[in-house]
Amino acid sequence: MGAVQLVILGLGLVSLCLSIWAIRADAGLSWRFVVPEAVAPEGEPVFETVFDYTAETGQAHSPGILVREEGFTITWFEGSEEAQADVDIHYTGFERDTEGWLRGTTGLLVTRGGLARVMEPRQIVVTLGNTIENEAVRDGLYATVASVGGWAMASVVDVRAPGGQAVRGRKLNLSPVFGRSNLVKSPMVEYADGSHGLPAYFEMGSTFGVLVRLDKQGRARDTRRMDGFGKPIQPMVVPLSETRAVAFLRDFDPSRKLLVSRTEDGGQSWSRVEPMAVENPSSPVAALGLGEGRILLAVNDDGDRPEVLRLVLSEDEGESWRVLRAFEGEGALRYPMLRRLTSGEIVLAYSKGTKRGLVAHVFNQAWVAAQ
Amino acid sequence: MTGLGASAALAVLVGWVVFALLGWVASPGLSAGLGAVVGVLVVAMFRESLAVGGAVALLAPFGVMLPALAVRHVAVSLGVPMAGFGTWELVGFLVLYAVFLAAAFGVVPVDLYRFGFAPVPVAVMVLAVCAYGFVTGNWFLPLVAVLGQAAWVMGWGSSNWFDYVLHVVMWPVALVVLVGRIF
User: Fold this and answer.
1) How many domains, chain A?
2) Residues B110-126 pLDDT 10s
């Protein structure tokens, strides 16, 4: 045995020590979903429009909803045009008082320059896109960020922004191709051990949905794919039990169908993505589990008319749907987002006028039950 | 550490580019010295520039392998004895890495990249690289694999071990080396 072999044996020994350390430190992942509790309808049915905003110029698109103890915050990206180098993340807050929902502070939440300064490692940020709440930490966001090229070269960035100012940004490592091409759109999914899953999607030529599992430090710890029919993107995951969940996906191809995939093992594996009977003009959907197999869905369910957005309810885990309310406007009403507030009320936000502005409604369970 | 590591890796790569260009007209020693100086100066003085920020945005995470290959190339040029990569090793790497990248694009229906997140598969892969190095007498690959594992365990960069030992620009570089060797 030569000196080289002895050196390599030493390296192997170091590797063994590192492996033992890593295996002992690894907490493992729970694959049991937190199932949304059913909330009994209380009080009078309420449905109100709390936000109707049109950008003075350019586009305002893709709302996110950040749930706060005292209310909620709507975020969106705004600039001359989507994917251009003047797009930043804006926000406006809402708090309830005795008169109803009041619009509070409005401003810039994440700017390209501000995020570039706090990125680890430091790097340029050219444009910003879909942004959602990081529900695992306070004042956290997941932003879709492009530093080079368009959305196909985008990455998901874990942004920490206490007090509305970004203090740290770190790309999630989700792909070996320059860490690209991954984007976010839908809210996170909570697991029984307190960890979360982040629905994301790959969009560089081929497309597929991804459920990203995150560790306690917010770093990617595992990924599971949703692939099959068409070009599935923008998965929206709704847990139905501790182990079962349904994911609704947009078809990036013009199949005019909404796509679906299901899991029976807590998200470890997903059924082949298949088209549903529900039409869809290649638009993302928002969904919210209401417990006991009930799913609220905001969907463009007319394959030829993206200007029609319907709020529909299923009481049999997505097998059948009934319309609660239809929204119609000039230009497309797309990119819906649904979140349940700490009060049990539900916020629905979406883009209006083909990315020209945003609308947000707040309604309660009594309103849902009354439809 | 992520920022420091990225800056160091970028300095090495800039230095290597300078070394490679100067190598046409200057001695290896002078090229290496000037490359080291330019690499450090560029990163130290222009870290906030659009060009350097853009390079980091495009290439990060750099990992261990890419800068290690650059240093190795310089070392070999300076006469440091190192075991080279065989032609069949390059062919094997190109084929296996192509399959790996195809899997990342969903062309191959198995997500190979995700095995780099978990400690047990990483332990097996690093030991396999060590065993390969033991058999072939090449310490470079085991060294990179173990350094990558150490950085991965410490959380100094990517949460995926593959990002430390592979980089997508290695594929075209390996292809150019292979073509140059054959023709």
Assistant:
1) 1
2) 999 999 999 999 999 99
Peptide bond into B61 cis (omega under 30): yes
Q: Show which of B60, B82, B104 is a domain's final residue.
A: B82
The answer on B77 and B118 residing in a single domain is no
Q: Phi, psi at residue A257, to the nearest 5°?
A: -130, 145
Contact A75, A109 (CB under 8 A): yes
Q: Is there a domain that residue A334 lies in?
A: yes
A134 at the B interface (CB within 8 A)?
no
Task: For residues B153 and B96, state if they share a domain.
Answer: yes
Cis peptide leading into residue A283 (ω within 30°): no
Final residue of a structural domain among B67, B82, B97: B82
- Residue numbers of B between 111 and 130 with CB closer than 8 Å to A: 111, 113-114, 117-120, 122-123, 126-127, 130
What region, left, alpha or beta, does residue A145 occupy, with left being phi > 0 and alpha being psi -120 to 50 degrees?
Answer: beta
A217 and B48: CB-CB below 8 Å? no
A311-346 residue pLDDT tens: 999 999 999 999 999 999 899 999 999 999 999 999
Regarding whether B65 and B147 lie in a shared domain, the answer is no
Helices (H), chain A: 3-25, 112-118, 365-370
CATH number at residue A365: 2.120.10.10
**Domain-located, residue A336:** yes
Look-up of token digits 């945003």: A358
- Predicted TM-score of the model (pTM): 0.95
